[in-house]
Design brief:
Helix content is 29%, strand content 23%. It is an alpha/beta fold and 100 residues long. It has a 3-stranded parallel beta sheet, with helices on one face.
């Protein structure tokens, strides 16, 4: 994180891309770590393929917005489809309210 924070202090702007902003946990963790490392505020942008409107974190760019309170689909992206079915099921069950 130090190197990324240093790059922002040198004037670079960073774009982080994730498949889904569901709970916001991943994006929030990344933002917190970069802030603790001294990253320049406003130098980072976040993009996702799917953005949950009820997420604790906001993103700057999205391909699709869903409301997890209504849409309970479990999304399996092509790069995850290689995982065993048991791993996909375990991921889906990690936070039951997302899918029930």
């Amino acid at each position: 994180m130090q190197r990324l924070a240093e790059r922002t202090r040198a004037g670079e702007r960073l774009l982080f891309i994730d498949d889904i902003n569901d709970s916001g946990r991943t994006i929030g963790h990344l933002r917190d770590m970069l802030a603790r490392a001294g990253a320049t505020p406003g130098s980072m942008r976040f993009a996702t393929l799917i953005d949950n409107s009820g997420s604790a974190q906001t993103v700057d760019y999205r391909a699709r917005t869903i409301d997890r309170a209504v849409v309970k689909d479990w999304f399996v992206f092509p790069w995850e489809a290689m995982a065993p079915d048991s791993a996909i099921q375990a991921d889906a069950e990690e936070v039951p309210e997302r899918i029930s």
